[in-house]
Amino acid sequence: MTPDYDALVDTERGLISREIFVNERVFEDELERLFTRAWLFVGHTSLIPKPNDYFVSRMGTESVILCRDREQKVHVFLNTCRHRGMKVCRYDQGNTTLFTCPYHAWSYATDGKLVGVPLYEQIYAGIMDKASAPLIEVAQMVDYKGTIWATWDPQAPPFEAYMGGALDYLDLVLDSRDGRPGGSEVLHGIQKWTIPSNWKFSAENFSGDRYHNVSHRSADDVGISPSARSGVKGRRDQYTPGSKNVLVTFPQGHGTHSVLLPENNWYIEGFHDSPAVEAYYRHCFDERQRRLGEKARVVGFNGTLFPNASYLAHQPRMICVWHPVGPMTTEVWRFYLVDHDAPEEVKAFLRHYYMRYAGPAGMTEQDDMENWNYATAASRGTIARRYPYIYQQGLGRSTMDDPLPGLATAQVSEQNPRGFYHRWADYLSGRD
Ligand code: FES
Ligand SMILES: [Fe+2]
To answer: 206: closest CA among 41, 12, 18?
Structure first.
């Protein structure tokens, strides 16, 4: 029987059933009704700069190939042979003119066409036309400032409409540090690891859990920010005093958390150990102010773009994808971003910061994973499952257009997770 998703997710009262984090049937419905219809993050064009470059990614539980064909056109294909389904590409990344299936050697060009079938003339000619069996391609795909997004649903709204107002916040991730539009690249390579947790715990945390700082107290005490030196605490560098943390909730299910600098703001020096990095960031700060004016007051922090692509926009700058594997298993993928034209010294500096902050061995990420992993396991108990989770923080206290456009609040609030699960229930109930 189909679960009653509106009963499991009551965002008006702020009560959400534990069932949605552990139930197999709910998970199957997510794959069928959400991951086949939503726009999903697939990768970045900097991973496939040359013709015939490819990068193997995922959409939901399925393997997909992001590739650039001979004519430079970018495609996203399901990584499965039309004959018996074997993966046609078993590498993570590379360059090839053909994806040759290891099972019976059907070969596909990088534009997806089936070009080679052993013994074709003898056993298939006149029966099966090669043109009828290309690699299966996504219904819609966009390249947004170098990031590739795709959906299996031909009826899905265009990417811009799907993102809505959250697109401005994605820009805070993707635009150059000096305010020029776009210009990011992925710092090789991608970190991938598996956690015994439901994917939604991570997605909702990144949408703006301003309440969980206590989890990171030890990382804060150690002081791991980019410019950290002994005696300086915190995980990130500081902003002008008087800055506000603002959460914005979008009807499409996205949630963002940003920093709004005061009108009179200034660059805070930090990189004492590296004059070159210091000079670079000071230049970027000034240049961004000059280009964007009043808009430069908004600095991205974190957010979740519904359903499973999250980001940290500023420090450390990255896109996080929570790939569903099972109700209690998630594969985490992390793409670290830098400005394509940043000096090598800055890239090297950031690489070290990214490593000590994030990923399975990063100081901060370890804290978060402990919480999600045990929350998932604890959600499963026969008795525990009878008690819904309480998502009532700041319920009904949001305002419109204050201090940022949209449903925004400068308070600690769970309005972003509520927005996320509201949208989730729309998809799971099969609403348009
Ligand atoms: S499964 Fe690919 S050629 Fe048979
Ligand atoms: Fe955290």
So the answer is: 41
